[in-house]
Amino acid sequence: MKAGLSRFLVFFSLLILAGIHISVGFVSGSEDIRHTKHNLAVNPDILAGEGNDFKPGDLTSLRGARNPEVRGTEGDVRLNEEVCIFCHTPHGGRSNVGGVQGIAPLWNRRLPNSMAFTPYNSPHFDAQDLMGVPGRPKGVSLACLSCHDGAVAFDALINSSGSGGFFQNNKTMDGQGGSIGMSFSGPAVDASNSFKEGLRDSEAGGFIYFDQFGAGPNASFGSEPFPNLGLDLRDDHPISMEIPRVDPQFREILTNITTKGGRVPGSGGVMWIDRHPSGANLPLDKRDRIRAYASDPSRPDAPYIECASCHNPHEASRPGGQPALSAPVDAQTINNSLFLRLASRPGANSQDRNERSLICLSCHKK
């Protein structure tokens, strides 16, 4: 009897350990913005700074230049390593960027003009939502494109760090420009403080690489090709498009989408994309989940695919592992993150996130 009980306990323990192993295998990489390319102070393609006392790897504040009484000892400005300021601010930001609930919270940037973009189109897709409106960028995608359109300046901030640096025009006006006078020493930045255009290279398969002033793709210090989508989005995955309701390949996710993650219909909350009726394929961490957004404030249950449906701008995981939080924050630790969310398909790999194209197959039934 005791031997049988002992065997049972051993077996039960092994089951628990197996469960722990399975769970650990599905755990996502933690969000760690400092070790991503969105840390513009150490991204060698951009290298954000301000002032004559710029040091590589340090982002400097505008507070000293505008408030002489609080100048630091380093020169005209006080050095700091702020990362979040290029997208978010605790005070004075735009509160309604991203659709029904303002998915891009306290947005600290000038936005592009959505009508300046040429949206995706093809014989198989009409680039319109179900209300017949052209699929021009909206919602959280406009927030992403406020850097990646190659027109709005990297430093088109509403509220710079410290006091005395509030730029009302960047809060009320949209479109290209908006620089507040910071400096960028990376090869990817043009004279207007936005992404360089880059060149099409037929020998490289049509990717956008550094132009001649960036010394070409082989001399790049950071990621290639350029993350400059430009204003012509016809060669990019469509964004700000409503998931088609009449296409059979999307029927499963449309059926499941209103029941995932406790979302209340009509709330305008994020909608999780999954093909399993019980949600068995969804990552445990909601920040990792592929999702659709309520980008149309007048239709809070209309699911839109946006840039952030597949990309998490704070995600530092990458093939080969994620740097420890204590690892140095420098050019060697930040430049291979693809910001991908975790596929809602069986066998998703939390490090190589589109292994076997599982992110694509999370939406497309092919």
Provide the β-strand percentage band. 5-15%
Report the helical percentage. 10-25%
The total beta strand count reads: 10
The average pLDDT is: 75
What is the gyration radius calculated from CA atoms?
23 Å
Number of helices: 8
Write out key terms for the chains shown.
single chain, 366 residues, mainly alpha, two-stranded antiparallel sheet, 8 helices, 10 strands, 17% helix, globular
Can you describe this structure?
The protein has 8 helices and 10 strands. With 366 residues, the protein is mainly alpha-helical. Strands 1-4 form a two-stranded antiparallel ribbon. Strands 2-3 form a two-stranded antiparallel ribbon. A hairpin with a 7-residue loop joins strand 5 and strand 6. The radius of gyration is 23 Å and the shape is globular.
Report a brief summary of the structure.
About 15% of the residues lie in helices and about 5% in strands.
Lay out the secondary structure.
Layout: H1 2-26, E1 48-49, E2 59-60, H2 63-66, E3 79-80, H3 139-148, H4 168-172, E4 183-184, E5 199-200, E6 208-209, E7 241-242, H5 251-256, E8 271-272, E9 291-292, E10 304-305, H6 307-310, H7 331-334, H8 358-363
Antiparallel strand pairs: 1-4, 2-3, 5-6, 7-10, 8-9
